[in-house]
């Protein structure tokens, strides 16, 4: 039986007078890998805020595992890696292991020794993102792409069922974007449901199981090949401006 993680029924949201989302009907089911695309200001971050329970729908219903999002207590079931995660500078005095441990308990100070049990979970998460060789390295010494993997490990350490990623490939070079998508593919195979906000449409359509295009309302929800077969005019219509869809074929 299909298990629904997120269910939105006629969800609308306003910031004051500005309507950011209008009558969204949409489900995220266990095992999905959803690529969420749309123009700047289209409402992607707002949709994520609603899922995370940081904002309440102005109208409509949004449930997480069947419970209204704002009443949902098991926050550890939902992992989130923000667009601005990539902010540790060279001098930041914490190792990879310490940064990942922060994902397990916010109470754990950066400099406290982590317990053995925590350490095992942390090492598993670092392994999941293929960064074991760097576990004792200072986070600031890693490249942007490597740091991004560590932020994913930090989100994975509490074993979320749904992982939400907000533009994780910004500033990552083309070769590493491919590797990054391979990582997401592996995580999805390990039964982690993914919601990925991206402007990297060409790469995303080769990995995601569904594409959602949001521009205040849902303009498209379907499989990647259907999305790729949309005409230029249809895509430009969704985006509100001309869009060149560059697809990469392997
Ligand atoms: N805190 C806020 N107060 C008022 N308006 C806001 C606020 N946050 C977002 N908005 C507006 O809501 C709309 C949707 O914004 P949102 O950030 O969700 O879009 P987005 O799709 O994530 O954009 P981007 O791709 O540029 O990150 C925009 O018109 C934006 O200006």
UniProtKB/TrEMBL annotation:
Keywords: ATP-binding, Nucleotide-binding, Transport. It comes from the Bacteria. GO terms for molecular function: ATP binding; ATP hydrolysis activity. CDD domains: ABC_Metallic_Cations (cd03235). Transmembrane segments: none annotated. Residues 6-248 form the ABC transporter domain. Belongs to the ABC transporter superfamily. This is Zinc transport system ATP-binding protein. It comes from Gracilibacillus ureilyticus. The lineage of its organism: Bacteria, Bacillati, Bacillota, Bacilli, Bacillales.
